[in-house]
Amino acid sequence: MAQGGGFALGLTLVVLRSATPLTAARMGGVAQCLGYLVASTGPVALGALHDLTGGWSWSVGLLLVLLVPMAWAGWGAARAVVLPEAARA
């Protein structure tokens, strides 16, 4: 439930922070591209850490440490701000 809710919340925040549909499309594309790229490294990194340490304690500890910057980023994303449309190049 948390993963599905977090994904839906992330997509909703992109739309709520955009002034125009073009801004939403651009911001959503960048967010999804970078998000999937970063998320794809998680299982590999945690599996490698599990193999190195022989248990899940360090992997779970790493997840708990990474929860702090995630909460900080979420706090910033929840501000009531609409991003201005970027200047055309």
Blueprint of the fold:
Elements: H1 2-16, H2 21-53, H3 57-77
Record keyword descriptors for this entry.
3 helices, 78% helix, 89 residues, mainly alpha
Sum this structure up briefly:
By secondary structure, the protein is an all-alpha fold. It is built from three helices and no strands.
- Judged by helices, strands and strand pairing, the structural class is mainly alpha
Order of helices and strands: HHH
Q: Specify the biggest β-sheet.
A: none
Radius of gyration based on Cα positions: 16 Å
Mean pLDDT: 87
Strand count? 0
The rounded distance between the terminal residues' Cα atoms is 41 Å
- Overall body shape: elongated
Q: List low-pLDDT spans.
A: none
The proportion of strand residues reads under 5%
Level of helix content? over 70%
Number of helices: 3
How does this structure look, described?
There is one protein chain. This protein is an all-alpha fold. Helix content is 78%, strand content 0%.
